[in-house]
UniProtKB/TrEMBL annotation, chains A, B:
InterPro entries: Isoprenoid_synthase_dom_sf, Polyprenyl_synt, Polyprenyl_synt_CS, Prenyl_diphosphate_synthase. SUPFAM superfamilies: Terpenoid synthases. It comes from Hydrogeniiclostridium mannosilyticum. Gene3D superfamilies: Farnesyl Diphosphate Synthase. This is Farnesyl diphosphate synthase. It catalyses: isopentenyl diphosphate + (2E)-geranyl diphosphate = (2E,6E)-farnesyl diphosphate + diphosphate.
C-alpha cells in the first residue's frame, strides 16, 4: 500500500468511527428519523471533504482530535444535501451510491426530516462542550460560521437554486462557474478552511486553503463533464453522454473538449501551487489534487 | 396602550427590522430562493419566540443589541420548520397565515431550499463576527449549541417525527407530552435560554428559563386542543372540532375537558412561579404566560 493510500485509509477510518458515534442507534419514539440519518451518513461515501479537513489540520500542526468534529460536520452537511437533492421535488433520484435513496426506503416525510436533522446536527457537533473544550470557543465559532456561510444561500444552497433555474437553458460560462463554485466549491472550501482553523492556522493559511479548495472543486466538476463524453461506462459505473442527452450546459459544451482539459489541468496546478503557502508536509494534499485530476471514474 | 402592549410592540419592531436586514433583496442568480425566504420570514408572524429571547435577556440585565441576533435565529428556525411542514410530502397545507404557502408561490423545490437556507442562516446570524464582537465567543457558542440541540432529532425534528408516526393512531398521554415537548417546547426553551445566555445569565437562570418555557409551551398546546372543542370559529379564524374529525389524540380526548383545563392552569402557574428565580422585573413574561393561558384564538 502506498503512503498516500495508507494515510487515506487512516483518515477515513477515523471519520467512520466518529460519525457512527455521533448518531447511535436509539430505541426512542423518533427512532425512524435516526435510522434514516444513519442510513445515508454511514453508507461508505469516499469522505473526500472530511479527509481535506483532517489533512489541512495536520498541515497546520494540529491534531486529529481537534479536527474530527469539524470534519464530521462537513460530511453531515454534504449528506443532508444529497438526501434533499434526491427527493421527488428536486432530482427525483431513486438510487444513490448503489442503494435505494433515503426517501425510497424511509418515505419522503422522514427523508426530509433526516436531512433537516443532519444539517442541524452538523452545528451541534462543532459547538458541543466536548469539542469546545478541545479547540476553544474562538475556533469553534470561526469554524461553525464558515460552515454556515458556505452551506447557505450565498454558498451551497444558492448554487442549488442556480442549478434549478438553469435547467434546460443555455447559460454562459460565467453562470456555470458561479453555480459550481457555490454548489460544490463552497463546501469543499469550508472543509479545507475548517481544518486550518481547528489547528489555529493563520488568516493567510485559511486563504491559501480556500484557493486550493476552489481550484480543486472546479477541476473536479470539469473532469466530471469530460468523463461524461470520453469515459468508459464500465469504469464510470454510469451511462455516458447523459449531459448531451439532457441538453445540459457543461464545460465541454461551452469550451470544447481540448480547452476544458486545459482548464482542468491549470486548475489542478493552481491547487498544488496554493499548498506552497504551508511549511508542513503537503504531499497528501498534492497527491489528492493530482489524483482527482487524473481520475477515470 | 397598556405597558404590556407597549413592550410587545417595541420587541416586535426590533425583531422585524433586524430580520429584514439579515435577508435583503438581492439581484443575484439565486434571487428566487432569497425571495422565498423573505416571503415566509417577513410575513407578520406574532414573533412570540424572539420576544421571549429579548425579554429574558432584559430580565437578566442584558441589552437588546446582545439578544437580537439570537432572537432572529430562533425565528428563522421556526419559519424553516413551517415551510418544510407545509410541503406536500408533510402536511400538504396550501395556506399559512392567510397567504398561500411558500411552495404554492415558489414551487416545492425552491421552498425546500428556502427552508434549508433559513435553517443554515440561523447559525450564521449567531456566529457572525458582528454578533461575536457584541456578546463574546463563549456566549455565541453556548447559544448556538442550545439552538442546534433543541432544533434537532432530540428536539423539534424528533417531535415532528413522533407526530408523523402517531398519525391516525391512539397514543398514550406520555407520548403526546413527549411529542409536544420536542415539537413545540424545545424551540421555545431555546428562545428563553438564549436570552439568558445573551446577557451572561447564570446556569440557575438558564434552568429557570427552561422551566418557564416548557410549562408555557405545553399549556399553549393544551389550550389549542381545548379551543378546538370550545372555541368560536369566527374568533379562532379556523374551523373547530377538526381534531375529532381527524380522530387525533389530544389532551381533551385523553383527559376530558375539565382535567385538560386544570392541567393548563397549573402549567401556567408553574411558568409564572419559575420567574421567581429572577431578581429583575418579570412582569412582561408573567403577563405573556397569563395571556396565553386565557387566549381565545
Amino acid at each position: 500500500m502506498s503512503q498516500y493510500e495508507d494515510r487515506q485509509r487512516k483518515f477515513q477510518q477515523a471519520v467512520e468511527n466518529k460519525l457512527s458515534a455521533y448518531i447511535q442507534e436509539d430505541k426512542v419514539l423518533q427512532s425512524d428519523v435516526i435510522d434514516a440519518m444513519r442510513y445515508s451518513l454511514l453508507d461508505g461515501g469516499k469522505r473526500i471533504r472530511p479527509m481535506l479537513t483532517l489533512a489541512f489540520c495536520e498541515l497546520c500542526g494540529g491534531t486529529e482530535e481537534q479536527a474530527l468534529p469539524f470534519a464530521c460536520a462537513v460530511e453531515m452537511i454534504h449528506t443532508y444535501s444529497l438526501i434533499h437533492d434526491d427527493l421527488p421535488c428536486m432530482d427525483n433520484d431513486t438510487m444513490r451510491r448503489g442503494k435505494p435513496s433515503n426517501h425510497v426506503v424511509f418515505g419522503e416525510d422522514t427523508a426530509l426530516l433526516a436531512g433537516d436533522g443532519l444539517l442541524t446536527m452538523a452545528f451541534e457537533a462543532i459547538l458541543q462542550p466536548d469539542t469546545v473544550a478541545c479547540c476553544g470557543a474562538e475556533r469553534a465559532v470561526r469554524a461553525a460560521y464558515i460552515l454556515a456561510r458556505e452551506a447557505g444561500v450565498y454558498g451551497m444552497v444558492g448554487g442549488q437554486q442556480i442549478d434549478l433555474m438553469s435547467e434546460g437553458r443555455q447559460i454562459p460560462l460565467e453562470t456555470l462557474r458561479t453555480m459550481d463554485e457555490y454548489k460544490t466549491g463552497a463546501l469543499i472550501s469550508a472543509a479545507c478552511c475548517m481544518g486550518c482553523i481547528a489547528a489555529g492556522g493563520s488568516d493567510e493559511q485559511v486563504s491559501a486553503a480556500r484557493e486550493y479548495a476552489l481550484a480543486l472543486g472546479l477541476a473536479f466538476q470539469i473532469i466530471d463533464d469530460i468523463l461524461d463524453v470520453t469515459g468508459d461506462p464500465e469504469v464510470l459505473g454510469k451511462p455516458v453522454l447523459s449531459d448531451q442527452k439532457s441538453k445540459k450546459c457543461t464545460y465541454v459544451s461551452l469550451l470544447g473538449l481540448d480547452s476544458a482539459r486545459k482548464l482542468a489541468a491549470s486548475l489542478t496546478e493552481k491547487a498544488v501551487k496554493a499548498l506552497e503557502s504551508f511549511d508542513g508536509d503537503s504531499r497528501f494534499l498534492k497527491e489528492l489534487a493530482v489524483k482527482l485530476g487524473e481520475r477515470e471514474n
